[in-house]
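Discrete fold record:
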Amino acid sequence: MRKNIWKWGLFILLLAPVMTACKDDDEDDYNFRNDPHITQTVESRYPGAQIVEVERTYQGYEVQMWLNNGEVDMHLDLNYQWLYTEFEDIAWTSVPEAVVNSFTQDGFTFNPREDDVDRIEYPNGAETGIYYRIELDREPIDLILVYNPDGSKRS
């Protein structure tokens, strides 16, 4: 009998870290997803976007959305003001011709299986600014090139 109690005690002791290690943060995310400030900011900026997940960051909030059949990440500050939006892994064919021309004139080639391009929108006064971030997977280092829509390099 004592042996069985010892075995069960050891089993419970070994199982305790496993049961407590996996914190489910869906409840926290649910509260952020339903925060009226976040939903209002998303709706005003991107009508029809569906909020998938919201994470708290050191800057504020990262709102993962589904928009126009694609995943989009919107970043807000602690006061729910829009910082920027990332349209990740957009098709190379949707990159403006001026950007493609500058990119190729700089001696680079794009491999859609290894490389990716993101379109970034950000507040630029009363306008919405846009730039393209091209990430090239080149061993031993990755290259990140940033272009304005007119093909000029962004510093």
